Structures are given as C-alpha cells and as structure tokens.
C-alpha cells in the first residue's frame, strides 16, 4: 500500500497452508515442541480431535498478512487477538488452509490506522477480535 489507508479499505484475502511439516518447522523455530502439535496419539490422549497448529503460528501469519499489505512505510505498533478454536492439521500432503482478510476500521487523529482482521480455517473463525494498529511514516 503506497498511501495511508482509509476506513473501509480492504486487505486482499491471503491463504496460508498448514502441514505437519510446517508445524514441525515452527516448533523448531519457536521452541514449542508440545507433542499435540505433531502426534495424533498424544493429541488424543489430552482430548483433542487431532493434531492442532500452534496458536502463535496463527497470530504470526495474520500479522504477516497485514504488514505485507501495509508495506515498508508502516510499523506494527499494537496487535492482539483471542483464540476461539483450534486449527486441526491432518497428516496429509495438502494439510489445511488458513485464510486472512481484513478491513481498515479506523484512522485515528494521531494518524495511526486500526485494521480488523478475520482469520478462518474451513470457513470457521479461529481467531476473534484480531486487531492490528499501524503507524505510518509521514
């Protein structure tokens, strides 16, 4: 985005593929090696319906979607979300897709921009109240 966005501007929908391989790579990078993120039997043992993605991975890809859209002139200064449901990742080559889109909700008097994001897997919201605040270079 080359100019400061306006309320109502929309982010393009981005799709991020989750596979078990990606979960293992994220575990190595983050240090979160909890077996619910790679082992069906361990996930079942704690009552989960299958292997689930790391929640912070979902936060990260949503932040990536907004910062790439915003461009180099913007700095992410606030970011938050609530986890609403786990992302089940099947043991297949195709995995599962997470989609991220959003709308500029407000341009504040101080020039910062609030972006409201929607994060879904299989058409169900997996994150709620996902909001990013951007500051733009003037």
Automatic annotation (TrEMBL):
UniProt domain MaoC-like: residue ranges: 14-118
Q: Which Pfam families match?
A: MaoC_dehydratas
Q: Which family does it belong to?
A: Belongs to the enoyl-CoA hydratase/isomerase family.
UniProt protein name? MaoC/PaaZ C-terminal domain-containing protein
What species does this protein belong to? Streptomyces aureus
């Amino acid at each position: 985005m080359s100019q400061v966005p306006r309320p109502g501007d929309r982010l393009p929908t981005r799709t991020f593929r989750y596979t078990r391989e990606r979960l293992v790579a994220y575990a190595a990078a983050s240090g979160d090696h909890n077996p619910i993120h790679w082992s069906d039997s361990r996930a079942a043992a704690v009552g989960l319906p299958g292997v689930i993605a790391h929640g912070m991975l979902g936060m990260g890809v949503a932040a990536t979607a907004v910062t790439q859209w915003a461009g180099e002139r913007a700095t992410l200064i606030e970011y938050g979300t609530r986890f609403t449901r786990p992302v089940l990742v099947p043991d297949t080559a195709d995995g599962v897709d997470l989609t991220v889109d959003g709308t500029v909700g407000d341009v504040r008097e101080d020039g910062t921009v609030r972006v409201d994001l929607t994060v879904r897997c299989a058409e169900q919201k997996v994150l709620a109240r996902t909001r990013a605040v951007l500051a733009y270079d003037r």
